[in-house]
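Intended use. Records such as the Glycine--tRNA ligase entry shown here are meant for training and evaluating sequence-to-structure methods. They are not intended to support clinical decisions.
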Amino acid sequence: MAEEGLMEKIVSLCKRRGFVFQGSEIYGGLAGTWDYGHLGVALKKNIENLWWRFFVESRDDMYGLDSAILMNPKVWEASGHVQGFADPLVECSKCKHRFRADHLEDTTKCPECGGKLSEPRQFNMMFKTSVGSVDGSDTAVYLRPENAQGMFVNFKNIIDSYHPKLPFGIAQIGKTFRNEIAPRDFIFRVREFDLMEFEYFIEEKNWEERFEYWRGQMQEWFKKLGFGPEDIKEIEIPDGERAHYSKRTVDFHFNYPHKFDEIGGLAYRTDFDLNNHIAHSGTDLSYLDPNTNERTVPHVLEPTFGLGRHLLAVIVKAYTEDELGGEKRVYLKFPPHLAPVKAAIFPLLKNKPELVEKAREVYQNLKKEIPQIVWDDNGNIGKRYRRQDEIGTPWCVTVDFDTLGEKPELKDTVTLRDRDSGEQKRVQVSELSALLKSGITV
């Protein structure tokens, strides 16, 4: 079990250092919405780009897609979401707060005020809006509750454009919306979030073999984030608890501060979605085997990953408290390839023009090769180290008088400080780029 109070510490750090802010904060916020600051965006992008390289760009059987958030409402009728995408809701007669019935031990008494709870009723989690003119002829549409349907309705387009052979996948990273009854646990359960997922189309006879393959690939992915066996556990979802489209589902849970909870999942969706879209749209979504000249409707495996939950997990794993030089410190022990800032460049003193000029030269040259480095001359050197530690910067580079040649044998060298150990060493300016690049290579 994670340390008590860890989530509160992480929420405070994320606000203080500009990773995550409460959405609409100056108006009191809106439950289940969060805004990502500069460092949060950088960390998200690093996770997202690593995922895309690992699951898409490094393979020759995966095709990218960016489908529209708003879709024809018939898509959601065909997929079963209009009728079946719901959670059991109960409401307190006294304080009027709402809760998910399946998250309560006692579904008769309000956990907040002790009031009487209503009977559970099904609450559809799709956000509904409308498109059209102002003359009353608007069409009801939904904000997508999953990315998957965009990939299914584009199946024929991918086939016609690229002529892939089975097995192959369609991958997408994008916004998804769910009208959560009770958002909670910081950015873990929210109403607007990003999913990284793909639909992998296969022959039915191979589903079990392929399922195990992707199960292993997902575990490899978590290793790339720096997670160990103690951080991730697999949960087999039993009959009656799986989504309506799934014949088998394994959820992957991370050890968050509140509990082990879902960070991703692997579902065998069979041919449910393609067959439903064939029936509702009248479009042929079958696959023509070039070897046998036979048409079949492929089956589908779906690995899916919550990007916000990944970001939270990476921060939880990285959060560290220790003592360095006799002082307590908090730092984020990010794997260097995920750190939003790779290195910070300092002049030893900001009131010495010759130091600032040389440090600026080092910074500008490095910035061309490693975009995620920053300039920092605010406060004394100790405060800069602590600030960079707290945002997870792996290395700090200090330009001092020795760099300028006060000691001739050290001319054009700088001090390179390691975040985790606090150790410092002199390195040649000409070697900096190669050293930093080697440290952030996955």
